[in-house]
C-alpha cells in the first residue's frame, strides 16, 4: 500500500516524549498492508454469504405465508432452507466478517506487522469451503436438530482448524507482541477468539460425536448458542464499538477504568445463561434457575457498557456527530440495539414473562436484535471505515451508502418490532387459553416478507459499493505490499 | 489487565466454570438416566421405538421439521401447553433417554408434537395432513413423501410411511416417576 | 453522512475534541491515553468516583438475591424435579407418606431401650423380659405402642418366665415417627415377623393414652389380649 494515499491513518498531535520515532504514519500503512489481503478476503467472502443469506431469507419469509411457494422439490423445503439461511448468516456472514474485523483491529491497535497473512487466508479458505460443503449436505438431506449445529459433524474438524488458523493463532500472535500497553478491544477480541473454538469443540463432542443422554444435549446446545451469540459475536462486536467510538469522536471513553469489570463480568456470566433460554424444558429446576440468575447478573456488564458508550456519546454533542459520520451512525445504532437486546434478555428470563413468549416469534426477534441490529450494523460501520484504508480507494457512491443504511435500519426495526409485537400478542392469546390455530397472525409473515426484501435491497447496495471498491484498487495494494 | 496470558487463563476459567457447573454436574445427575416402569413390575417407559419409526425419525430430522415443531410439554405453571391439549403431563428428562438426538425445538410455528401419537386418530389422517395441509396452515405439503397408487389415490411411499410411523410413536402419556399421571 | 464516507474527510472538518488533537486519535495515542486512564482510575468528570463502591454494593445485592432465588427455585437440586409447582402441590396434600426405616429404628432402640432389653432383644433373665419372639410385641400394634408411650409397671409373664420391673414412659419424649421406627424395628428384628407401624398410628394411640401413668400388664391384656402364647 503506498504511503501518500488518502488511506494513511491520521496521527494524533500530542505524541508523548520517549515514543519511538519510527511509529509514524508510514509504518501504520505497512501494518495495514500486512493484514490487507486476509482482511479483504474475509470481508469479500462475508459479503457473498450475506447476499446468499438475504435471498434465502426472502424465500423463507414468503414460504411462511404462502407455503406452496417454490415447494416443488424436496430440497427447497422450508425446514432445509431455514437451516441453510441461518448457517449462512451466522457462519458465512457474521463470523467471516468478524474474523476479518478482529484481525484488522488487532493489527491496528498492536501496531504490529503480521508476517504470515497467508495462514489466516488459508484458514478463511477452509472455513468457506467447509461451509459450502455443509450447505450442500443440508440441502441434499442431512441435518442435525440443533440451531447452528445443523451442519454434519464431519465438517466440525475443518471449521475448528480453520478458526484456529484464521482467528485464534493470529489473535495470540498479536496479543503477545512485546509492548506494555493494552486496550480494552484487545481483551474482548482475545476472549472471543478463545471462547468460540473451545466451546465449539466441546459442544460438537458432547452433542454430535459422543451424544450425552437425552435432554442434556439440549443443555449443551443452549450453552453453545449463548456463548456463540454473546461471547463470539457479541464480544467481537463490542471490541469494535470500544475502538470506533473514541477513535471517531476523538474523545476518551467515559468511565474507562470500569471496562475491566465489564469485561470479566460479561465473560463470567454469559456462559451460564444458556438454561435461561430453556425455561420449562425437561431440565432439572436447579439448572434452569442457575441460568436465570446468570441472565440477571448480565445487568452488571450492561450497566458498565451503558456508562462507557452512552456516557461518551452524550458528551460534546457526540450523538449528532456520530449521526453525521457513516461509521458511527451504524455503530451507534448497533449499541442502542445491544443495550435493548441484553435488557430484554434479562427481563424475559423472569419465569412468568418467559412462559408467555417462549416458542413464539418473540425469541426470534430477540436473536435478530442481537445478531443483526447490533452485530451486523457494527460490522457495516467498521467496513465503511476499514475497507478504504485497505484498498486505498473511496466508496464509489454516497447514495448507495444512504440506501444501505436506511433500508437495513428500517428493515431491522420493522422486523424486530414485528417479531416482538406479534410474538407477545400470540403468547398472550395462548396464555388466555385460545386454541393455537387461532393465535397465528398472518400479518406477521407479511411484515417479515417486506422486511426481508428491504434487507436484500440494503445488502445489494452495500455489496455493489464494496465490490466496486475492492476490485478497483486491488492491484495497487499488492504493489504496496511488496514495496 | 496487561498480562495477556493472565487474560487467557481467566477466560479459560470463565469457560470452564459453566462447563463444570452446568454441563458436567448435569451429566453426573442425568448421564446414566434410564427407563422406568410406570407401575411396579410393569413394562418400562419410554417404550422402544419400532424400527420403522427410527427410520421415520431420520426423515423428520432431515426435513428440518424442528424449525417449526417442538417436542416438549411445559409444566402447567409455565405456559399453557397442557391446557392446549398437547400433553397430559409435563415432559421430564426420562422421556428422552432413548433418543440419539433430541429434537426439543425452540420455535412453534405449528403445534407441539411431544404427545402427537396419542392424539392422532389414524394413519390416513396423518397422511392427509402431510400431503395436503388444511387451508390457512403455514405447513407446506410434502408431496415427495407420497406416490400415486393404482386407483389414483395418493399413498405414502417408503419414507412417508416411516415418517407416519415415527409421528405415531411420539407419546408421553404414561406415568413417569418424575411426573405421575393424575388419575 | 454525505461527506464523511470518504476516509480522509475528517482531516478537513475541524471538530470539538475532548482531549485528542483536532485530527482525532491515532491508534497509538488511543491506546496510550486509555492506559493512562486505567492507571489513574480518576475521570476528569466528578461523581463517577463513587462508581466502584456502587458496583461492589451491586455485586453483594445480586449475590444475596441469587442465593435467595436458587434456594426457592432449584427444587433442592434434585435431578428429578422439573415442575416448580409440583413440590408445593404435594405439600398441600398433607404430610408425606411415612416409611418406617429399620436402620433408624435400630439406632433409636440402641439409644433408648437396649440398656434393659439388650441389643440382642433377649432381655435379662429375672429382670427385663425379652422382646425377641415375645407375643407382647407381635399382633395388635397398639399394645406395643401403648407400652412404649405410657410405660409398664407390675408383674408380667413372657414366654413362661415372670418378670417384675417398672418400664418408664420412654415414648412420651419421642416424636411419633421415632416411636414408629422403634416399634417397627422391635416387631421385625431378631426373627420377629409382625407388620410395620406408621407414625399416624402412633399419633392416634398417643391421643388415647393422654397423660395417664404406666399401665399394669393386666390392664393391657384386658384391652388387647395376647394373640398367641
What is the gyration radius of chain B calculated from CA atoms? 21 Å
The CATH homologous superfamily of one domain in chain B is called Cytochrome c-like domain
End-to-end Cα distance of chain A, whole Å, is: 8 Å
- Could you give the distance between the termini of chain B? 62 Å
**What oligomeric state do the depicted chains represent?**
heterotrimer
Structural class of chain B, by secondary structure, is mainly alpha
What's the CATH architecture name of one domain in chain B?
A: Orthogonal Bundle
Q: What spatial form of chain A do the alpha-carbon principal axes imply?
A: globular
Tertiary shape of chain B: globular
Please state the CA-atom Rg of chain A, rounded to the nearest Å. 22 Å
Main pleated-sheet profile of chain A: none
Which strand order do you get reading across the main beta sheet of chain B? 1-2
Mean pLDDT of chain B: 91
Please, could you describe this protein's structure?
The complex is a heterotrimer of chains A (483), B (183) and C (229). Chain A has 483 residues and is an all-alpha fold. Chain A has a domain at 316-483. Chain A contains 16 helices and no strands. Chain A has helices at 25-65, 78-110, 117-140, 156-175, 184-209, 216-249, 259-270, 285-297, 299-313, 318-323, 326-347, 351-357, 361-391, 398-431, 442-472, 474-482. In chain A, α4 (156-175) runs antiparallel to α5 (184-209). The radius of gyration of chain A is 22 Å and the shape is globular. With 183 residues, chain B is mainly alpha-helical. Chain B has a domain at 48-169: Cytochrome Bc1 Complex, Chain D, domain 2. Chain B has a two-stranded antiparallel ribbon with strand order 1-2. A two-stranded antiparallel ribbon of chain B has the order 3-4. In chain B, α2 packs across α5 (158-169). Chain C is mainly alpha-helical and 229 residues long. The longest helix of chain C is centred in the first third of the chain and has 23 residues, at 51-73. Chain C has helices spanning 9-12, 27-40, 51-73, 85-92, 102-112, 114-117, 141-150, 176-188, 199-209, 217-223, and strands at 155-158, 161-164. Mean pLDDT of chain C is 75; it is low at 1-18, 42-48 and 88-95. The radius of gyration of chain C is 38 Å and the shape is rod-shaped. A two-stranded antiparallel ribbon of chain C has the order 1-2. Chain C contains ten helices and two strands. Chain C folds into two domains: 20-94, no CATH class; 102-223, Orthogonal Bundle (Cytochrome Bc1 Complex, Chain D, domain 2), CATH 1.10.760. The chains are: A mainly alpha (483), B mainly alpha (183), C mainly alpha (229).
Amino acid at each position: 500500500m503506498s504511503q501518500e494515499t488518502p488511506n494513511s491513518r491520521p496521527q494524533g498531535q500530542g505524541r508523548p516524549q520517549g515514543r519511538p520515532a519510527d511509529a509514524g504514519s508510514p509504518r501504520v500503512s505497512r501494518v495495514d498492508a500486512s493484514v490487507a489481503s486476509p482482511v479483504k478476503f474475509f470481508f469479500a467472502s462475508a459479503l457473498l454469504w450475506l447476499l446468499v443469506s438475504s435471498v434465502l431469507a426472502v424465500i423463507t419469509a414468503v414460504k411462511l405465508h404462502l407455503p406452496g411457494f417454490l415447494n416443488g422439490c424436496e430440497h427447497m423445503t422450508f425446514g432445509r432452507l431455514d437451516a441453510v439461511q441461518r448457517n449462512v448468516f451466522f457462519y458465512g456472514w457474521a463470523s467471516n466478517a468478524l474474523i476479518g474485523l478482529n484481525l484488522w483491529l488487532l493489527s491496528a491497535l498492536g501496531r504490529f506487522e503480521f508476517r504470515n497473512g497467508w495462514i489466516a487466508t488459508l484458514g478463511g479458505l477452509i472455513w468457506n469451503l467447509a461451509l459450502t460443503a455443509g450447505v450442500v449436505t443440508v440441502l441434499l438431506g442431512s441435518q442435525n436438530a440443533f440451531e447452528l449445529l445443523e451442519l454434519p459433524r464431519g465438517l466440525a474438524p475443518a471449521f475448528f482448524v480453520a478458526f484456529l488458523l484464521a482467528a485464534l493463532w493470529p489473535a495470540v500472535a498479536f496479543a503477545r507482541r512485546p509492548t506494555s500497553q493494552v486496550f480494552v478491544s484487545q481483551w474482548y477480541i482475545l476472549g472471543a477468539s478463545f471462547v468460540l473454538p473451545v466451546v465449539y469443540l466441546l459442544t460438537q463432542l458432547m452433542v454430535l460425536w459422543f451424544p450425552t443422554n437425552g435432554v442434556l444435549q439440549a443443555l449443551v446446545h443452549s450453552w453453545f448458542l449463548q456463548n456463540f451469540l454473546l461471547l463470539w459475536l457479541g464480544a467481537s462486536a463490542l471490541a469494535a464499538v470500544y475502538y470506533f467510538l473514541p477513535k471517531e469522536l476523538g474523545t476518551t471513553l467515559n468511565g474507562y477504568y470500569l471496562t475491566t469489570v465489564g469485561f470479566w463480568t460479561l465473560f463470567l456470566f454469559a456462559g451460564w445463561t444458556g438454561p435461561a433460554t430453556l425455561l420449562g424444558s425437561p431440565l432439572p429446576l436447579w439448572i434452569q434457575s442457575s441460568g436465570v440468575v446468570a441472565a440477571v447478573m448480565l445487568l452488571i456488564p450492561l450497566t458498565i457498557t451503558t456508562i462507557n458508550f452512552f456516557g461518551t456519546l452524550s458528551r460534546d454533542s457526540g450523538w449528532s456527530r456520530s449521526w453525521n459520520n457513516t461509521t458511527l451512525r451504524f455503530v451507534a445504532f448497533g449499541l442502542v440495539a445491544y443495550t435493548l437486546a441484553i435488557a430484554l434478555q434479562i427481563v424475559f428470563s423472569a419465569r412468568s414473562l418467559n412462559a408467555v413468549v417462549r416458542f413464539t416469534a418473540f425469541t426470534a426477534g430477540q436473536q435478530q436484535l442481537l445478531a443483526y441490529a447490533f452485530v451486523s450494523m457494527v460490522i457495516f460501520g467498521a467496513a465503511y471505515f476499514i475497507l478504504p484504508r485497505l484498498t486505498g480507494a473511496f466508496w464509489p457512491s454516497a447514495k448507495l451508502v444512504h440506501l444501505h443504511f436506511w433500508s437495513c435500519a428500517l428493515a431491522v426495526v420493522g422486523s424486530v418490532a414485528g417479531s416482538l409485537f406479534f410474538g407477545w400478542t400470540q403468547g398472550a392469546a395462548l396464555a388466555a387459553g385460545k386454541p393455537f390455530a387461532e393465535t397465528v397472525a398472518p400479518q406477521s409473515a407479511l411484515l417479515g416478507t417486506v422486511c426481508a426484501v428491504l434487507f436484500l435491497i440494503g445488502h445489494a447496495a452495500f455489496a455493489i459499493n464494496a465490490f466496486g471498491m475492492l476490485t478497483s484498487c486491488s492491484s495497487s495494494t499488492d504493489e504496496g505490499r511488496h514495496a | 489487565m496487561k498480562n495477556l496470558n493472565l487474560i487467557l487463563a481467566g477466560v479459560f476459567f470463565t469457560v470452564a466454570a459453566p462447563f463444570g457447573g452446568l454441563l458436567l454436574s448435569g451429566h453426573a445427575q442425568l448421564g446414566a438416566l434410564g427407563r422406568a416402569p410406570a407401575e411396579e413390575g410393569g413394562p418400562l417407559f419410554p417404550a422402544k421405538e419400532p424400527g420403522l419409526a427410527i427410520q421415520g425419525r431420520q426423515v423428520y430430522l432431515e426435513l428440518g421439521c424442528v424449525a417449526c415443531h417442538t417436542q416438549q410439554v411445559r409444566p402447567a405453571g409455565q405456559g399453557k401447553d397442557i391446557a392446549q391439549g398437547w400433553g397430559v403431563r409435563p415432559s421430564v428428562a426420562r422421556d428422552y433417554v432413548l433418543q440419539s438426538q433430541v429434537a426439543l425445538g425452540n420455535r412453534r410455528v405449528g403445534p407441539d408434537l411431544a404427545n402427537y401419537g396419542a392424539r392422532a386418530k389414524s394413519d390416513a389422517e396423518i397422511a392427509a395432513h402431510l400431503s395436503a395441509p388444511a387451508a390457512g396452515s403455514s405447513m407446506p405439503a410434502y408431496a415427495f413423501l407420497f406416490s400415486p397408487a393404482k386407483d389414483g389415490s395418493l399413498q405414502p411411499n417408503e419414507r412417508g410411511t416411516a415418517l407416519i410411523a415415527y409421528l405415531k410413536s411420539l407419546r408421553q402419556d404414561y406415568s413417569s416417576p418424575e411426573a405421575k399421571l393424575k388419575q | 453522512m454525505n461527506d464523511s464516507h470518504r476516509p480522509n474527510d475528517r482531516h478537513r472538518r475541524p471538530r470539538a475534541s475532548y482531549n485528542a488533537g483536532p485530527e482525532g486519535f491515532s491508534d497509538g495515542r488511543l491506546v496510550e491515553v486509555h492506559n493512562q486512564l486505567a492507571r489513574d482510575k480518576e475521570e476528569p468528570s466528578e461523581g463517577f468516583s463513587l462508581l466502584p463502591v456502587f458496583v461492589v454494593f451491586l455485586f453483594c445485592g445480586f449475590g444475596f438475591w441469587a442465593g435467595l432465588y436458587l434456594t426457592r427455585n432449584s427444587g433442592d437440586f434434585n435431578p428429578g424435579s422439573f415442575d416448580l409447582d409440583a413440590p408445593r402441590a404435594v405439600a398441600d396434600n398433607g404430610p408425606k407418606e411415612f416409611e418406617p426405616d429399620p436402620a433408624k429404628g435400630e439406632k433409636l432402640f440402641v439409644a433408648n431401650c437396649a440398656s434393659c432389653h439388650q441389643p440382642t432383644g433377649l432381655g435379662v433373665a429375672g429382670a427385663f423380659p425379652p422382646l425377641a419372639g415375645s407375643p407382647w410385641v407381635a399382633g395388635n400394634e397398639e399394645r406395643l405402642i401403648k407400652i412404649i408411650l405410657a410405660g409398664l409397671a407390675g408383674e408380667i409373664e413372657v414366654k413362661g418366665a415372670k418378670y417384675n420391673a417398672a418400664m418408664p414412659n420412654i415414648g412420651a419424649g419421642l416424636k411419633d415417627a421415632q416411636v414408629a421406627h422403634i416399634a417397627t424395628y422391635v416387631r421385625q428384628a431378631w426373627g420377629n415377623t409382625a407388620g410395620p407401624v406408621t407414625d399416624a398410628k402412633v399419633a392416634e394411640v398417643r391421643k388415647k393414652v393422654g397423660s395417664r401413668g404406666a399401665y399394669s400388664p393386666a390392664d393391657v391384656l384386658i384391652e388387647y389380649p395376647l394373640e398367641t402364647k
